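Our consortium's second objective concerns turning raw sequence data into structural hypotheses that experimental partners can test. To show how far this objective has progressed, the report includes one record in full. It was chosen at random from the queue rather than selected for favorable results. The single chain below, 384 residues long, was entered without modification.
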Amino acid sequence: MKPLDGLLVLEFAQYMAAPAAGLKLADLGARVIKIERPGTGEAGRRLAIKNLFVDGDSLVFHTINRNKQSYTADLKNPRDREKIEKLIARADVLTHNFRPGVMKKLGLDYDAARTINPRLIYAEVTGYGPEGPWKDKPGQDLLAQALSGLTWLTGNAGDPPVPMGLAVADMLCGAHLVQGILAALIRRSKTRRGAYVQVSLLESILDLQFEVLTTYLNDGGKLPQRARRGSAHAYLAAPYGLYRTADGYLALAMTPLERLAELMDCEELRTFTRAEDPFRRRDEIMEILANRFQSRPTAHWLEIFEPAGVWCAEVLDYARLVRRPGYAVLAMEQVVRRPNGAEVRTTRCPIRIDGRLLLSTAAAPRAGEHNAVIEREFLDEEQT
């Protein structure tokens, strides 16, 4: 039995953030039903990465929507609308990521939904919050990164702003939505009251930066300064960064310079004796290290550093990562299948419960695939 077995979630959502939340809820045992438009389904089915499609739907849709069911309905059609309201009456959780005001126009905003089901956990994602001058901007990951200040933390000094190479705002926002939903469910178990959970891409990406944004707010408004070379964190002192070696790259975290000087037999490092030197003279120190690291392969430095307890790691790409025993032992991959045999090799839920992996072989559904099943179970007159 999984922790959320028996929980019914209705997902009025598309693209990434809210569907990512539904994915985690489904992995934890919830029954997640995607409410989609008839025929085409949600727009994310056609949003492809590298133009990769599997069995008619984009590969990225498969990665975010495995282990769910699909029910298609026209929310403007009175008959379909009645069916949706019956599902809401039976649901534990409703999620959506429409722009502010859209669900109200459809008559399915929080006030309307809680009239149907007072115990409902109503959870919504917006781009920039429910009000304010940015509320109607497109809620898209890159735009949220751009507005948040995040793009000035990655890259080296002199580089233009550099976004993260992931839909990090979407993914974090989905995780925050799950946290809010689970907290609301715990409260409901005590009070029998529903809740209105709200998250936004911008608030999530700002929260991601809580450490460095707090530094800025308490440091006289000084902007972050990226290191000239090998920068990995705008607010951390040398040697923190990435360094080219003779055959690859090495990541080096917080380590006392005197210890590095000893292990590397580097006389130049011994000149930085003041407590403020590792940050104030960061670029000089990192330049010295960069030149020294290039003289030997990565394995040479790991053989010196790891036995000495220095925090370091080889920098891997995907091809090398998936061949390593450290990756294999995690069993992070699973194969999911549609009834017609179409397969997708993807990742599993990263959570373990009582030492057990949370796996599922159910692939993302076709649009409307489960209409008949859901109507028999929830919507037949004798059941309602």
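The partners drew two points from this record. The longest strand covers residues 31-36. DSSP finds 16 helices and 15 strands in the chain. Both points have been shared with the crystallography group to help prioritize constructs.
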